[in-house]
Amino acid sequence: MTNDSIIKPEILICQPADGFRFGVDSVYLAWFAQVSGKKRIIDIGSGSGVISALLAGLKRVGQIDAAEMQAPM
Question: What's the rounded Cα separation, in Å, for the pair 2 and 54?
């Protein structure tokens, strides 16, 4: 496992050294999301949780719940 910082030093994602690792498309999706304020968001199929982490760190939304069925993620 590696702890990788993205965009800001305080946004860390724990992901496997071998296997699926998030790509730039996740960063773009979080950047283009139209959310703000005290919204409540659910990220279904969140994988490593990179989009949720970016939304929490960059968009300052109220609450984010992330759900993933795959145990390794």
Answer: 17
**Separation of alpha carbons 60 and 17, rounded Å:** 29
DSSP string computed for 11-68: EEEEE-SSS----HHHHHHHHH----SS-EEEEET-TTSHHHHHIIIII--SEEEEE-
Q: Residue 15 in contact with residue 4, Cβ under 8 Å?
A: yes
- Its pTM stands at 0.73
Q: What is the pLDDT of residues 24-56, one digit of tens each?
A: 888 888 888 877 677 788 889 888 788 888 888
Q: Are the C-beta atoms of residues 3 and 28 closer than 8 Å to each other?
A: no
